[in-house]
Design a protein that fits this description.
Blueprint: H1 3-8, H2 12-75
């Protein structure tokens, strides 16, 4: 007797309601921890990207202003 033969003999609510509910009850903690890990990872990647972009912005702003200041001094 295969799984498909067993599933054919069950009512629709067992296949589409009871089995998914049982799966969520049994594996819910693992599913939630996996989703939490993925969300935390995406957040950390985005935070890293924002910090690197901010660092590049600050470095370019200060190096650009100091080089323009040096060139204006040399013109005097």
């Amino acid at each position: 007797m295969s799984v498909s033969e067993i599933a054919k003999g069950l009512p629709w609510w067992v296949k589409w309601v009871a089995v998914p509910v049982l799966a969520i009850v049994v594996f819910g903690g693992m599913i939630m921890s996996l989703i939490g890990f993925i969300v935390a990872l995406v957040f950390k990647v985005l935070l890293f990207a924002v910090l690197v972009a901010g660092l590049i912005f600050v470095v370019r702003k200060f190096t650009g202003s100091s080089s323009s200041r040096d060139s204006s001094r040399s013109e005097w």
